[in-house]
């Protein structure tokens, strides 16, 4: 329990009782849901409850007090690559079910080093098999753990182990739903970067069905045409390929799935809002424009024992892919959610999330 909560009088009335319950059962109780994350970078690796509980109870930001510890954190990174296995970072309870966050001992930059690809997939696979043996119901892959180039959005593991009892999900259906529900109903045209990615494809196909014109930024006509052919014939005209940023110089709704440099942002007209599904978020360069945050959802009000923050999110708010796994678990869905996003399920998952008490932050 963070000290500032105690001093500030914000301690939940049942905090001590709940902590005793958790301490008694956390070592022998099987989690119902697991969010499988990875480390972002060396500095943020210290944002964990077992390192600095007071820091982890607040949204992550670079703190000067932690910088002198960077050499130690770097040495731990090297040690983790050599001999560490997946470990539990945090946990909370929701409606009688135990939810845990496990972390793969790999850092973001390592996912882009080709020789490390097989080792990372092996770590993820071992975590999935461990969860399956334990009796975990749903395991949600976070961030780069579901990268298409790495494992096909989780498809690799489901194909390799067809008898898995644990449901493997990427949670991106809810991520798409969060982004789409941020767009005002009056919008008739959008500019989409990262247009042929998993999320970009689903967003484009969904919006064209609403008769919203989507300018899809991509140099690959082959990938654009493949996505366009997936749309019903009467809506294909709403998907338009563009190859340069200046094509969006009059469009005030940008859906950003690929990092934008300040130079590229200059093409946006004044008053543009940048909706984001890119990591890391773009630099807020334009003062005459507004910037959305990464897709996230607030957990239901009856969540218990949540003492830490998920990266830059405030306490009680989690990334949309995490929330997508929570919804999958609460609904008791029996299918895996891997690979391409099923556009027909976007509204289904969104309504289910709201029904269970999850809400936009």
From TrEMBL:
It is found in: Membrane. GO terms for cellular component: membrane. Residues 190-360 form the Very-long-chain aldehyde decarbonylase CER1-like C-terminal domain. Pfam families: CER1-like_C. It is a multi-pass membrane protein. InterPro entries: CER1-like_C, NAD(P)-bd_dom_sf. SUPFAM superfamilies: NAD(P)-binding Rossmann-fold domains. This is Very-long-chain aldehyde decarbonylase CER1-like C-terminal domain-containing protein. It comes from Aegilops tauschii subsp. strangulata.
């Amino acid at each position: 329990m963070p000290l500032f909560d105690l001093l500030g009088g914000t301690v939940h009335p049942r905090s001590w009782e709940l902590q005793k319950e958790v301490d008694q059962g956390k070592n022998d109780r099987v989690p119902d849901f697991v969010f499988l994350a990875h480390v972002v970078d060396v500095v943020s690796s210290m944002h964990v409850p077992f390192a600095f509980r007071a820091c982890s109870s607040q949204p992550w930001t670079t703190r000067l007090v932690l910088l002198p510890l960077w050499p130690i954190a770097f040495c731990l990174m090297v040690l983790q690559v050599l001999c560490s296995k997946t470990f539990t970072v945090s946990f909370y309870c929701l409606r009688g079910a135990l939810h845990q966050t496990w972390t793969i001992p790999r850092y973001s930059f390592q996912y882009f080093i080709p020789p490390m690809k097989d080792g990372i997939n092996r770590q993820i696979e071992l975590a999935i098999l461990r969860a399956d043996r334990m009796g975990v119901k749903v395991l949600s892959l976070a961030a780069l753990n579901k990268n298409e180039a790495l494992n096909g959005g989780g498809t690799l593991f489901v194909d390799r182990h067809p008898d898995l009892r644990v449901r493997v999900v990427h949670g991106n259906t809810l991520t798409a739903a969060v982004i789409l529900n941020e767009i005002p109903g009056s919008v008739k045209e959008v500019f989409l970067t990262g247009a042929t990615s998993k999320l970009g494809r689903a967003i484009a196909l969904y919006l064209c069905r609403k008769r919203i014109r989507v300018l899809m930024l991509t140099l690959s006509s082959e990938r654009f045409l493949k996505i366009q052919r997936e749309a019903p014939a009467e809506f294909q005209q709403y998907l338009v390929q563009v190859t340069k940023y200046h094509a969006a110089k009059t469009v005030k709704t940008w859906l950003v799935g690929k990092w934008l440099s300040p130079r590229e942002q200059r093409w946006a007209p004044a008053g543009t809002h940048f909706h984001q599904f890119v990591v890391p978020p773009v630099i807020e360069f334009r003062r005459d424009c507004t910037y959305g945050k990464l897709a996230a959802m607030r957990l239901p009000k009856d969540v218990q024992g949540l003492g830490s923050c998920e990266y830059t999110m405030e306490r009680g708010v989690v990334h949309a892919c995490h929330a997508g796994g929570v919804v999958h678990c609460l609904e008791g869905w029996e299918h895996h959610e891997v690979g391409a996003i099923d556009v027909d399920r976007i509204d289904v998952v969104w309504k289910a999330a709201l029904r269970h008490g999850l809400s936009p932050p």
